Amino acid sequence: MGNFARCLRPRSEAENFRDVDAQDVVQATVDSPVVCDAWVDAGCALHCGFCLNTFNEKPLNLAADWLRACVEDASLQVPRFADTAVYVALMRILCIVCSPGSLSLARSVAGVAGSRSGEEITTIVGQLYADTLTLLEDSWHATDDFRRIRPFLRLRSGRLLQLKIIVELCFREAFDPRPHPRKLSELAIGVLNAIETQDAGFVWNAVQTLGHPEQRYALIGPAASPQSQAACVMLQLQGLVSLLTHPLRPLERCCPLEKALNMMRSAVADLSANVGPEFSWLGAWQLIDSADRVFRFSCSAADEVLLKGWAVRCAAELAIWRFGDHYFAIVASFAVRVLILWRALLISQPRTCADLSPIQQAVQQALGDVSHCAAQAGSEVKEVTMFLNDHHMAGASHLAAARPCLLHREDGLCVPCLQATGDPNPPSVRTLSWSCAPETVRSERLDTRSPEASGTGTVGPVEDFEESAGQALHPEIQHT
Predict the structure, then answer these.
(1) What's the pTM?
(2) Spans of biased composition, class Basic and acidic residues (predicted)?
(3) 47, 305, 351, 456: which could join 441 in a potential S-S bond, CB 3.0 to 4.6 Å?
């Protein structure tokens, strides 16, 4: 799984809960915490010169090209890209979609509706969204294959669901009916821009708005959809983490540190109490993501033990899940992975002024508890067991991130199998399709094993509290 691109041979089987494709020789468990990106997993930032140039000029086109490459590869009978490579690609896509350049285009969709520019942006968003759904369905159902153990495939499903709700939130005007209220979408775009520009004042005001029941009610309405409630929690946690990792430590002037940490856990707990697991898992996923950033990038040396201890407690609690709950099994896999990476980080770091031995013991205790729980779990435990039995696997994505670009080689040429020209369905390609019409996602309540249930169930009232059900795409999107 560490290979960036596979040779043309069948995928090997897992032996004794180990993927024999994993490169255990290189222990890439940690990366240099130079830049704390708001959305990219550790070590997965863009490094290709061609991609960086396109990112500066046409960020959404770059995200669509990356996702299209992943979808085309997944449709092959023998996929060339390893699960770790696709996971890294999705992290980069998520970062690109949340970048200021892409978010400025989201405003253009609303501001120039009906113009040629607006139609082009809507078409790109439609392609991006359709490919997200296609890859999500393939990833979700592939986890049922008992013949192979693919932990990064389960993590891929989590990132795709996260990407899906972000696209629906930020590019609201490209959908009909609208998936979220206008005020919430505008606030989301403002928060993501403020995080990138480190505008602590705007972020703190937004966090207060999202955390106050009456102000949140004004944003999402009296009968808010579950995905809008999940989006509020995701934005609230992301904003608080950006303040915790801000180099000027502005949060200390706004509220006590313990209060901010309790706000994050309380927001996730309230979401779990108000919506079903097919939506509440998004808050738990974001909490693990937030804990990982706090553990790695916190700028408060004086409170290092407090922050790392809080992160470990969050991960330890979410690493245990109800058997048969496949959504929280995704969160558990994510939590176990970050616990393993944190332990490697603590071991590799030089001694600091703070005594971190209790933190290291807490991480070890959490992993021991998960091992005991996994021994009694059902079928969804196999990915967690693989992480526990092969700790090098947790850092395999860092190996994939260091390899050549998925779209470009070092000489700048496209990978032959990913060129846009030619027959889109060669003999070796199997078609990935939805069980319903591709232009419309089903609006009825879905089974908890379905990836659609996280964002496409019956939607409550949105802007002006009008009724809207389903996530039918905008007419421009339907024809992509």
Answers:
(1) 0.76
(2) 441-450
(3) 456
Torsion angles phi and psi, residue 452, rounded to 5: -70, -25
Between the alpha carbon of residue 32 and those of residues 36, 45, 246, 396, the distances in Å are: 10, 12, 17, 15
pLDDT by residue (tens digit) across 164-175?
Answer: 999 999 998 888
Cis geometry, peptide bond prior to residue 151 (ω within 30 degrees of 0):
no
Would you tell me how many other CB atoms lie within 10 Å of the CB of residue 427?
6
For 125-136, the pLDDT digits (tens) are: 999 999 999 999
Other Cβ atoms closer than 10 A to 36: 17
Q: How far apart are CA 379 and CA 382, in angstroms?
A: 6
Whether the Cβ atoms of residue 67 and residue 128 lie closer than 8 Å to each other: yes
Place of tokens 């993927």: 19
Dist. CA 460–CA 262, nearest whole Å:
29
Instruction: Work out the number of other CB atoms within 10 angstroms of the CB of residue 413.
Output: 9
Give residue 164's pLDDT.
93
Among candidates 367, 347, 345, which has minimal Cα distance to 43? 345
| Burial category of 439 from C-beta neighbours within 10 Å (exposed 0-12, middle 13-18, buried 19 and up) | middle
